[in-house]
Design goal:
- By secondary structure, the chain is an alpha+beta fold.
- It folds into 2 domains: 23-101, Alpha-Beta Plaits; 108-180, ACT-like. Chain A, domain 2 (Alpha-Beta Plaits, 2-Layer Sandwich).
- The chain has helices at residues 40-51, 80-91, 123-134, 155-165; strands at residues 26-35, 55-64, 69-78, 96-101, 108-119, 138-142, 146-153, 170-175, 179-182.
- The chain is elongated.
- It starts with 25 loop residues before the first strand and ends in an 8-residue tail after the last strand.
Protein backbone atom coordinates (compact mmCIF):
# COMPACT_ATOMS: atom_id res chain seq x y z
CA UNK A 1 0.00 0.00 0.00
CA UNK A 2 1.43 3.36 -1.00
CA UNK A 3 1.04 6.40 1.18
CA UNK A 4 0.05 9.53 -0.67
CA UNK A 5 1.30 12.80 0.78
CA UNK A 6 -0.11 15.98 -0.63
CA UNK A 7 2.28 18.81 -1.21
CA UNK A 8 1.78 21.55 1.34
CA UNK A 9 -0.04 19.15 3.64
CA UNK A 10 0.34 19.65 7.38
CA UNK A 11 -0.55 16.07 8.24
CA UNK A 12 1.40 14.45 11.05
CA UNK A 13 2.51 11.20 9.46
CA UNK A 14 5.71 9.28 10.05
CA UNK A 15 6.96 10.77 6.79
CA UNK A 16 6.57 14.30 8.03
CA UNK A 17 8.41 14.23 11.38
CA UNK A 18 9.37 17.89 11.21
CA UNK A 19 5.75 18.84 11.72
CA UNK A 20 5.46 16.56 14.76
CA UNK A 21 8.60 17.00 16.83
CA UNK A 22 10.57 20.03 17.91
CA UNK A 23 14.14 20.13 16.66
CA UNK A 24 15.29 22.25 19.59
CA UNK A 25 18.19 20.62 21.42
CA UNK A 26 17.63 20.59 25.17
CA UNK A 27 19.89 19.71 28.10
CA UNK A 28 18.42 17.10 30.46
CA UNK A 29 19.62 15.69 33.78
CA UNK A 30 18.64 12.05 34.30
CA UNK A 31 18.79 10.10 37.57
CA UNK A 32 18.94 6.34 36.97
CA UNK A 33 18.64 3.85 39.84
CA UNK A 34 20.42 0.60 38.96
CA UNK A 35 21.64 -2.64 40.53
CA UNK A 36 25.18 -2.24 41.81
CA UNK A 37 26.73 -5.12 39.90
CA UNK A 38 29.50 -5.57 37.35
CA UNK A 39 28.68 -4.48 33.81
CA UNK A 40 25.67 -2.27 34.52
CA UNK A 41 27.51 0.99 33.89
CA UNK A 42 29.00 -0.49 30.70
CA UNK A 43 25.48 -1.33 29.46
CA UNK A 44 24.27 2.20 30.15
CA UNK A 45 27.30 3.73 28.43
CA UNK A 46 26.92 1.24 25.57
CA UNK A 47 23.37 2.42 24.99
CA UNK A 48 24.64 5.97 24.48
CA UNK A 49 27.69 5.13 22.36
CA UNK A 50 25.82 2.57 20.24
CA UNK A 51 23.22 5.13 19.21
CA UNK A 52 25.53 8.12 18.89
CA UNK A 53 24.15 9.99 21.91
CA UNK A 54 26.55 12.14 23.91
CA UNK A 55 26.95 12.22 27.69
CA UNK A 56 27.94 15.69 28.91
CA UNK A 57 28.39 14.63 32.54
CA UNK A 58 28.31 11.29 34.39
CA UNK A 59 28.50 10.43 38.08
CA UNK A 60 27.81 7.10 39.71
CA UNK A 61 28.02 5.76 43.26
CA UNK A 62 26.37 3.15 45.44
CA UNK A 63 23.50 4.76 47.36
CA UNK A 64 22.04 1.74 49.19
CA UNK A 65 24.58 -0.71 50.58
CA UNK A 66 21.97 -3.20 51.82
CA UNK A 67 19.88 -3.10 48.64
CA UNK A 68 23.00 -3.02 46.42
CA UNK A 69 21.72 -0.18 44.26
CA UNK A 70 23.59 2.73 42.73
CA UNK A 71 22.50 6.06 41.35
CA UNK A 72 23.77 7.20 37.99
CA UNK A 73 23.31 10.90 37.34
CA UNK A 74 23.94 11.87 33.76
CA UNK A 75 23.51 15.00 31.73
CA UNK A 76 22.77 14.67 28.03
CA UNK A 77 21.43 16.84 25.23
CA UNK A 78 19.02 16.15 22.41
CA UNK A 79 15.69 16.95 20.88
CA UNK A 80 12.65 16.07 22.99
CA UNK A 81 12.17 12.98 20.81
CA UNK A 82 15.77 11.82 21.41
CA UNK A 83 15.46 12.40 25.18
CA UNK A 84 12.28 10.29 25.26
CA UNK A 85 14.07 7.54 23.32
CA UNK A 86 16.99 7.61 25.76
CA UNK A 87 14.66 7.32 28.77
CA UNK A 88 12.69 4.47 27.19
CA UNK A 89 15.84 2.57 26.21
CA UNK A 90 17.38 3.04 29.66
CA UNK A 91 14.18 1.69 31.23
CA UNK A 92 14.48 -1.50 29.15
CA UNK A 93 17.87 -2.42 30.61
CA UNK A 94 17.22 -5.27 33.07
CA UNK A 95 19.38 -3.86 35.89
CA UNK A 96 17.67 -0.44 35.74
CA UNK A 97 15.02 0.06 38.44
CA UNK A 98 13.97 3.62 37.73
CA UNK A 99 14.67 6.50 35.32
CA UNK A 100 13.86 10.06 36.37
CA UNK A 101 14.19 13.11 34.15
CA UNK A 102 14.92 15.78 36.75
CA UNK A 103 14.61 18.47 34.09
CA UNK A 104 10.91 17.79 33.47
CA UNK A 105 9.88 16.53 36.93
CA UNK A 106 10.24 19.97 38.49
CA UNK A 107 13.02 22.04 39.93
CA UNK A 108 16.21 20.35 41.07
CA UNK A 109 19.50 21.18 42.75
CA UNK A 110 22.63 20.49 40.69
CA UNK A 111 26.18 20.77 41.99
CA UNK A 112 29.62 19.83 40.77
CA UNK A 113 32.97 19.63 42.54
CA UNK A 114 36.19 20.67 40.80
CA UNK A 115 39.87 20.93 41.66
CA UNK A 116 42.06 23.54 39.94
CA UNK A 117 45.85 23.71 40.00
CA UNK A 118 47.02 27.24 39.28
CA UNK A 119 50.71 28.13 39.03
CA UNK A 120 52.14 31.59 39.15
CA UNK A 121 53.98 34.20 41.15
CA UNK A 122 53.55 37.83 42.02
CA UNK A 123 50.40 39.59 40.83
CA UNK A 124 48.99 36.44 39.21
CA UNK A 125 49.23 34.61 42.53
CA UNK A 126 47.50 37.43 44.40
CA UNK A 127 44.78 37.72 41.74
CA UNK A 128 44.09 33.97 41.78
CA UNK A 129 43.59 34.11 45.55
CA UNK A 130 41.28 37.13 45.22
CA UNK A 131 39.15 35.39 42.59
CA UNK A 132 39.05 32.18 44.63
CA UNK A 133 37.69 34.20 47.55
CA UNK A 134 34.98 35.75 45.35
CA UNK A 135 33.96 32.29 44.07
CA UNK A 136 34.17 30.78 47.57
CA UNK A 137 36.84 28.32 46.45
CA UNK A 138 39.00 26.75 49.15
CA UNK A 139 42.78 26.39 48.98
CA UNK A 140 43.45 22.69 49.58
CA UNK A 141 47.16 22.68 48.67
CA UNK A 142 49.75 25.41 48.43
CA UNK A 143 53.40 25.64 47.40
CA UNK A 144 55.57 28.67 46.67
CA UNK A 145 54.60 28.44 42.98
CA UNK A 146 51.11 26.95 42.96
CA UNK A 147 47.70 26.67 44.57
CA UNK A 148 45.17 23.88 44.32
CA UNK A 149 41.63 25.21 44.70
CA UNK A 150 38.49 23.23 45.49
CA UNK A 151 35.19 24.69 44.30
CA UNK A 152 31.61 23.47 44.30
CA UNK A 153 28.65 24.91 42.45
CA UNK A 154 26.73 24.75 39.23
CA UNK A 155 28.51 23.75 36.05
CA UNK A 156 28.23 27.35 34.89
CA UNK A 157 30.02 28.58 38.03
CA UNK A 158 32.81 26.01 37.50
CA UNK A 159 33.15 27.10 33.85
CA UNK A 160 33.31 30.79 34.84
CA UNK A 161 36.01 30.10 37.43
CA UNK A 162 38.04 28.13 34.88
CA UNK A 163 37.78 30.95 32.33
CA UNK A 164 39.14 33.45 34.86
CA UNK A 165 41.96 31.16 36.05
CA UNK A 166 43.30 30.32 32.57
CA UNK A 167 45.19 33.61 32.07
CA UNK A 168 46.48 33.40 35.67
CA UNK A 169 48.22 30.05 35.14
CA UNK A 170 45.62 27.27 35.21
CA UNK A 171 47.64 24.08 34.72
CA UNK A 172 45.25 21.28 35.53
CA UNK A 173 41.58 20.74 36.31
CA UNK A 174 39.57 17.74 37.56
CA UNK A 175 35.75 17.76 37.64
CA UNK A 176 33.41 15.26 39.28
CA UNK A 177 30.42 15.75 37.01
CA UNK A 178 26.94 16.81 38.08
CA UNK A 179 25.24 15.45 41.18
CA UNK A 180 21.54 16.35 41.28
CA UNK A 181 18.44 15.90 43.44
CA UNK A 182 14.88 17.10 42.96
CA UNK A 183 13.84 19.97 45.23
CA UNK A 184 11.34 19.63 48.03
CA UNK A 185 9.78 16.60 49.67
CA UNK A 186 9.53 14.48 46.55
CA UNK A 187 12.42 12.09 45.97
CA UNK A 188 13.41 8.92 44.18
CA UNK A 189 13.58 5.59 45.98
CA UNK A 190 17.03 4.28 46.70
Amino acid sequence: MALKIQQGSTSHSAYNLRATYSETVERHTLAVIVDNEPGVLARVIGLFSGRGYNIDSLTVAETDHTGHTSRITLVTSGTPQIIEQIKAQLGRIVAVHDVHDLTVEGSSVERELALFKVTGTGDHRVESLRLADIFRANVVDSTLESFTFEITGTSEKIDAFADLMRPLGLQEMARTGVAALSRGKKGQAL
